[in-house]
Amino acid sequence: MPKKIDPAVRDRAVRLVREHQAEYPTQFAAIKAVAAQVGASRESVRRWVAQAEIDAGARPGISSEEHAEIRRLKAENKQLREDVQILKAATTFFVGELDPRNR
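RE: above sequence
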């Protein structure tokens, strides 16, 4: 199970990479240095920076807000499907109870 990183640490890491990127030959070198400084893995910092670029519109992809909306809609869809199954089962039960042949 991955550990949860404080959003403030995540924001700080992204800010540090953006501010100090010019001091390094590549963006990955800046990410590597910042990851060591904040105590996170290089891959985590790389993903945070990539997502920040997507959220800013500098890179194509699904923004954090869109991803949250998709997750919310999938959960709602799952709940509605479960409700439909329960209602179908209840309908079948009550139709059987109301059938005069069962009395």
